[in-house]
Amino acid sequence: MLKRHHKTEALILKASPYGEGHTIVTALTSGGAQLKAMAYGSRKLTSRIGGHLSPLTRVELALYKSRDMDIIKQAQNLESFLELKNSLSRMTKAFFVMELIEGFSNTGVGNRPLFDLSLMSLRGLQSSSNRDIEDLTVSCFQLNLLKVTGFMPELYTCVECRSSLNSNNYNFIIDIGGLCCTKCLSGHPGRAINISSKSVEILRQFDKGGTLFSELPLGSTVELRRLLDSSTGFWLDREIRSRRFMEHMNSRDIREPMSAIDMESV
Ligand SMILES: [Zn+2]
């Protein structure tokens, strides 16, 4: 017999208003599957669960299975990421991370490493001491996201012929999934991104689970960001909306209060 009541730990990714006072919640369960669930009456003042369902909150949910969508009956707060929410710079990056988690997770398909990576990255962002570390944490998350979801680029040999690579001339082709040797490159005119050996070294370091570099040449961080954004955007098959907002916030004084226009663009 189908068990209609169940509980799960989950990270809230999105809370969309629905109808009169209800919310559709998108979350990543601790099993790494995407969950969409309805919270009836959660935006009413008397609701006991509404306060626990804001994005960027780890919760324990008690759910009831219904035909179309699970219904949230209870929610208990487990982790609020308050220090993350208190910094506009870190929070915009956390929203970018959560947009990617939503894009790369699937309903009904578990991926526990994705849940672990998500929590680790958000906690890493929360404890980042400056913007450079925040950006590196995001880049590291993006590469590991590709890894745990099966889209890891080839970084060590030519993705097509498996021959060794010329360390003075690295070319990355996103849609074939990694670095390409000069011989195979001719089969992909105009599609290669030339990247520096320093960036390749950093990517390999990330891949091997190495610690984050605290100081990197500016050129490498820009190059890495471009490469990882292009890769995640390609596999997601759409532009990552919050990246533009994140760049906008990075380019201005973050002590400024968030304007209504900024809020609308999130
Ligand atoms: Zn080749």
UniProtKB/TrEMBL annotation:
GO terms for cellular component: bacterial nucleoid. Keywords: DNA damage, DNA recombination, DNA repair. GO terms for biological process: DNA recombination; double-strand break repair. Residues 6-81 form the DNA replication/recombination mediator RecO N-terminal domain. It holds the Pfam family RecO_N. Belongs to the RecO family. This is DNA repair protein RecO. It comes from marine metagenome.
